[in-house]
Design a protein that fits this description.
The protein has about 200 residues and is mainly alpha-helical. The chain has one domain (about 5-200). Helix content is about 70%, strand content about 10%. The protein has helices spanning about 5-25, 35-50, 95-110, 115-130, 130-165, 165-175, 180-200; strands at about 55-60, 70-75, 80-85. A hairpin with a 3-residue loop joins strand 2 and strand 3. Helix 3 (about 95-110) runs antiparallel to helix 5 (about 130-165) and helix 5 crosses helix 6 (about 165-175). The chain is globular, with a radius of gyration of 17 Å.
Length: about 200
């Protein structure tokens, strides 16, 4: 496939993803009201700690997601949307919700300085390049831990590896930090913070 065909295929995939998201949002049904309430409470709590997003309009929506349990998108005119598939998250702990939202907010932080054209190009590369997708997700996991949500991120991934479909578990193993990597990074961050507090 030549370069122009790859670009065209990437644009087509991106457009189809947007259409799919719009359709799925319209047919969503809530199965666990308690989980949604807790999700919204943790969403607000974690968002408050992401000061980089304080002046942004960040909205939580419920919807069906084909791959995974959540996704974040920056729309034109500074509108940020986190979509949550609550059906995938029944009985998720508050720690798990915090880890999930911290990951999604870390995505949004990386999006905030990108133009709409840059976001389209980002979406194309994310759709067609496994290497690029791996870099993005592992960097986002790292940012999540650096924001202080390492243990929460661990709780979320542990839950998903126990409850997700085989396909989703394969995605987590391929693109994201592993449980051991999250644990080790969290410990390094904690040790660094302890050393800073001692020297102050």
């Amino acid at each position: 496939m030549n370069k122009n065909m790859r670009i065209f295929a990437g644009i087509l995939i991106f457009v189809l993803i947007i259409i799919s998201i719009s359709i799925n949002h319209n047919i969503y049904h809530i199965n666990d009201n308690d989980s949604e309430i807790r999700a919204r409470e943790n969403f607000a709590e974690v968002l408050n700690n992401f000061t980089e997003l304080n002046n942004k309009n960040v909205v939580l929506k419920m919807g069906n997601i084909n791959d995974g349990s959540a996704e974040s998108i920056k729309w034109p005119f500074e509108n940020y949307v986190v979509t949550l598939d609550i059906n995938e998250l029944n009985n998720l702990s508050d720690d798990g919700f915090r880890g999930l939202f911290a990951h999604e907010f870390s995505h949004l932080v990386s999006y905030k300085n990108k133009s709409w054209i840059e976001m389209i190009w980002f979406g194309i590369k994310y759709s067609i390049s496994d290497e690029f997708k791996t870099d993005v997700e592992r960097e986002t996991d790292t940012t999540t831990v650096l924001h202080g949500y390492g243990n929460d991120s661990y709780a979320y991934l542990e839950y998903r590896l126990e409850t997700a479909s085989e396909e989703d578990r394969t995605v987590y193993a391929k693109y994201y930090l592993s449980l051991d990597e999250i644990k080790n990074l969290t410990e390094v961050v904690a040790q660094t913070q302890n050393m800073k507090s001692i020297t102050v």
